[in-house]
Specification:
Low-confidence stretches: none
Number of strands: 7
Structural class: mainly alpha
Strand order of the largest sheet: 3-6-7
Order of helices and strands: EEHEHHHHHHEEHEHE
Mean pLDDT: 80
Helix content: 55-70%
Number of helices: 9
Largest sheet: 3 strands, parallel
Oligomer: single chain
Length: 510
């Protein structure tokens, strides 16, 4: 059909529109009440059979620009969600790292300061090496000391890397814990709702929401305002315990995943701490060996000089670690801030395209509704239904005589004419996505006289010839009772079913 799957937002819920949804306007089934027109969804609930879903199905199959509009809407929602997620991530990052979003940090200047610190440290290390070599006795231990210095330098770098990793892990586990607390709060609230609902039944449709008394059967047919309920224009906001339990289970699964993540990160933190302790211990051992060798190999003056140089090196290494950490923090902030602005631009561009496509869609949709309504009215006027007025409401549902059906067969006829109109309209407008394919499964089972049924079925071929001016291919599969179709359709009969004559559709293979 060339239609991409797209999603709709219904409050906190998302719904992907796929083939099973579109099929509801290609298949006239027996099970669905004819008053509903649309085939009932496989999983019937307040979302799958909502007005929003039905309108989207109609617009997708019959709209000439609906696909571009749906694509632009999905693109806008995606761009908006990505922007909001990145904006939240940036806010959390600033909060955890005590960074002001308005603070201007010069990364180039900070990088120059880091390079200067590294250069100074290298000079002092060279100076310390010369001071240590000023005594001839030191030459005997020169190779050992060089090895120890190299090990000390490597271990210092390794220790700094572990510390940076630890800071990152601490930030990560704090972020996950915050998310876990929010999710646990949601689960507690849902649990309270389930408990209250099971104990008090405050969401029951048979109990008064004000005094909690049972409502008698006659009054259950009335709305709170005292008028009769209109089932077609009533939206259900009362959910069962199973609905809440499903939400509860989904939240608990997500919580279990988060707890697994916390365990994994905590394990990394523990391993990192063990590594820091081990490397720190190794550094202390190296320092002890170096000090002992210096005491043996130098005089008192050189020892004092080396001690001062070591103190300076320690201070400079600490300054370098803090500066590198600050640099990496603001570098990550700058990256997140840049990405956020890019996502904002993408969101605004997507919103602009959505507004443009919405204008085109609304303009084209008015013409579609007008032409569809004209064809529907012509079919209804020539059908077995006697009516005074015929129109369509805002949800694209047919309204005959203001929506008041005097007999059950009226709803059957209206539903048949609606499906006939879908096919006729697709023949007259070959650019739409409706596949020019229709299945009608025993419409008489919904309650209609034989004469009226035959008249309605006969009308189908007449209208298809009238609107198929381009002579395009189409297919209609109709099942009906014996002798419950026009004589002119006899040549179209492909198979019959007569149980009393053992004539079944499914036949054994030879």
């Amino acid at each position: 059909m060339g239609i991409e799957v797209f999603d709709l937002t219904l409050g906190r819920h998302n719904w992907l529109i796929g083939f099973k949804d579109l099929y509801r306007l290609m298949y006239y089934d027996q099970e669905t009440s004819p008053i509903k027109v649309f085939k009932a969804p496989d999983a019937d609930n307040f979302i799958s059979d909502s007005d929003v879903i039905r309108k989207a199905i109609f617009e997708t199959l019959l709209g000439k620009t609906s696909e571009k509009y749906n694509q632009s809407y999905s693109a806008y929602r995606k761009a908006k969600l990505e922007y909001e997620q990145l904006n939240t991530e940036l806010s959390e990052f600033c909060k955890l790292n005590n960074v002001s979003p308005d603070f201007e940090y010069d990364l180039e200047e900070a990088n120059k300061e880091i390079e200067e610190l590294i250069f100074t440290i290298e000079n002092i290390e060279n100076e310390r090496e010369l001071a240590a070599c000023s005594k001839t006795e030191f030459g005997n231990n020169l190779e050992i000391i060089d090895n120890l210095k190299e090990r000390y330098f490597q271990k210092s770098i390794e220790l700094n890397e572990y510390k940076i990793d630890k800071d990152r892990l601490v930030v990560e586990i704090s972020r996950i814990n915050n998310f876990k607390e929010d999710l646990e709060c949601e689960i507690k609230q849902i649990n309270k709702i389930i408990f209250t609902h099971d104990k008090l039944s405050i969401f029951s449709t048979t109990t008064c929401p004000f005094c909690s008394k049972e409502i008698d059967e006659e009054r259950q047919k009335l709305c709170l305002c005292g008028h009769e309920k209109d089932e077609e224009n009533t939206t259900k906001f009362v959910y069962s315990s199973s609905d809440y339990l499903h939400i509860y289970d989904q939240k608990n699964k997500k919580l279990a995943t988060i707890e697994d993540a916390i365990i994994a990160v905590s394990k990394d933190v523990h391993e990192n701490t063990m590594n820091i302790n081990q490397v720190s211990s190794e550094i202390e051992t190296i320092e002890t060996k170096l000090s002992r060798l210096v005491c043996i190999s130098t005089h008192e003056g050189n020892l004092v000089s080396l001690t001062e140089l070591n103190l300076r090196l320690n201070q400079l290494n600490d300054d370098l670690y803090l500066k590198q950490r600050e640099y990496l923090t603001y570098k990550e902030f700058e990256k997140l801030d840049t990405d956020k602005e890019l996502k904002k631009e993408a969101r605004d561009e997507a919103n602009k395209e959505l507004n443009h496509q919405e204008y085109i869609f609304n303009t084209a949709n008015k013409a579609t509704i007008k032409e569809f309504g004209t064809i529907l009215k012509s079919l209804v006027d020539e059908s077995s239904l006697s009516c005074e007025t015929m129109s369509m409401d805002s949800d694209y549902m047919p309204l005959v005589d203001g929506g008041i059906y005097r007999e059950k067969s009226s709803a059957v006829t209206i539903r048949m004419m609606y499906y006939f109109t879908m096919l006729s309209y697709s023949l007259a407008n070959t650019s739409i996505k409706y596949p020019r394919f229709l299945i009608m499964d025993t419409p008489e089972d919904s309650g209609i006289d034989k004469e009226k049924l035959i008249k309605n079925i006969e009308l189908l071929e007449e209208k298809l010839k009238e609107y198929n001016k381009l002579d395009v291919d189409y297919q209609v599969i109709l099942t009906t009772g014996n002798d419950r179709y026009p004589l002119s359709y006899q040549g179209y009969v492909k198979d019959t079913f007569e149980e009393e004559k053992d004539n079944f559709i499914l036949k054994p293979r030879n």
